[in-house]
Design a protein that fits this description.
Layout lengths: L1 H22 L15 E3 L3 E2 H19 L3 H10 L7 H5 L6 H9 L4 H9 L14 H20 L13 H14 L6 H9 L12 H18 L4 H8 L6 H15 L4 H16 L17 H22 L3 H8 L3 H10 L7 H19 L10
Antiparallel strand pairs: 1-2
């Protein structure tokens, strides 16, 4: 068995040594012009076109996060060059890995060499994520360009068919942003990507579809992590466009749901949403203290006033878990309000004032999530 394996593997290793020695005779940079002759996808242009688009997106990411833009731009300029080497042509699984080795041989900065490998991470489910700032920028840009481009030409995944691996690309992109805690806005990233395609493709028209597709991948990400679907839906209802912010809200709502006050407040919020939806006239922007006649509504208004000053700074700092814990104190005054107060009073002024009070209460919770969704 050993002899048989050696007969098979020795020629392959000899080929690899030959390719390694031949490839090093030409720098990665010298291969850039050849990218123009390599088609990425016939409607989306060559690998050179793709490399230019990746560079634009990665540069925007680096600028927004304060990364080293020079390293990002250099890595982006070389990111597809190893695909033209004999080694990667013969051993496709080595794409990126060989880019790292050849870049180091060429004397490129280590940050650039590492990023050429990290652009493909994660390569599969559970794979490690790019560690370096430059690698993260490149990995996000590479996936985003593919996602927007394939949607722009009208070939999104259907059923179990995903020839371009868009589901994997979307999940990898989201994992990088969330798990590496990158403060990036997904809608803005998509818009940045769309402007780099030819006007004839009208890539901007697919921006909403790409965003919604990624939200579906985010759903799968959280369900696999063990989160309840109602927690996800409550956060999704607010449509936060920053994956890291979405993740912080998810953690907060999951913690809130375990509090003894959660069920009652979720039910109350659902009731409030139904009441507000049925209002047949515009709801005042604020409630008048002079029209708060019942002790229960006075107590609720006072509790809201006190809590708003406490939780608004927490919202601003995205300390959603602490904010929801504070808001849990509203359970008693809210329950008392619904026990003692007739919201839909025949007195129009009283009714509108009570609707304004409930709207104020609902808006406070909605700064994190629509917790009425926790009722299912």
């Amino acid at each position: 068995v050993q002899a048989g394996n050696e007969r098979v593997i020795r020629p392959r290793l000899e080929d690899a040594v030959f390719f390694w020695e031949q490839d090093r005779k030409h720098s990665l940079e010298s291969r850039v012009p050849q990218l123009e002759s390599m088609t990425f996808q016939h409607q989306l242009g060559s690998l050179h076109d793709k490399q230019i688009r990746i560079a634009a997106i990665a540069t925007s990411i680096a600028e927004s996060l304060g990364f080293d833009v020079r390293h990002v731009q250099r890595a982006a300029a070389l990111c597809k060059c190893d695909l033209l080497t004999s080694m990667v042509f013969e051993f496709p699984d080595l794409q990126g890995i060989m880019g790292r080795y050849y870049a180091r041989h060429d004397g490129e900065p280590d940050a650039v060499a590492i990023a050429l490998d990290e652009q493909y991470q994660p390569r599969h489910a559970g794979d490690r994520l790019p560690h370096s700032d430059t690698g993260q920028s490149l990995a996000i840009a590479e996936r985003l360009d593919t996602l927007v481009g394939i949607f722009a030409i009208g070939q999104p995944p259907t059923g179990d068919k995903d020839p371009f691996g868009l589901r994997r690309a979307a999940l990898g992109l989201l994992r990088i942003i969330i798990e590496k805690q990158l403060d990036l806005d997904l809608r803005r990233l998509i818009e940045t990507a769309t402007v780099n395609f030819p006007a004839a493709l009208q890539a901007g028209d697919c921006a909403a579809a790409v965003f919604n597709f990624m939200m579906e991948r985010l759903r799968a990400y959280y369900l696999e992590a063990g989160f309840d679907i109602h927690v996800f839906e409550s956060v999704l209802a607010r449509q936060p466009s920053q994956p890291l912010d979405f993740d912080q809200r998810m953690a907060a709502v999951a913690t809130f749901r375990d509090l003894p006050e959660a069920d009652s407040l979720a039910a109350a919020n659902k009731r409030i949403r139904n009441i507000l939806r049925k209002a047949d006239s515009p709801i005042p922007e604020s409630c008048s203290p002079a029209l708060l006649h019942e002790p229960a509504e006075q107590a609720l208004a006072e509790a809201l006033e006190q809590l708003e000053t406490v939780v608004q700074p927490l919202f601003a700092q995205r300390e959603y878990t602490s904010a929801l814990r504070k808001l849990a104190a509203l359970q008693a005054p809210v329950d008392r309000f619904f026990d003692d107060v007739m919201v839909m009073s025949e007195d129009t002024a009283l009714r509108d004032n009570r609707l304004a009070l409930l709207n104020r209460l609902s808006a406070l919770f909605l700064q994190v999530a629509d917790i009425s969704q926790l009722q299912g």
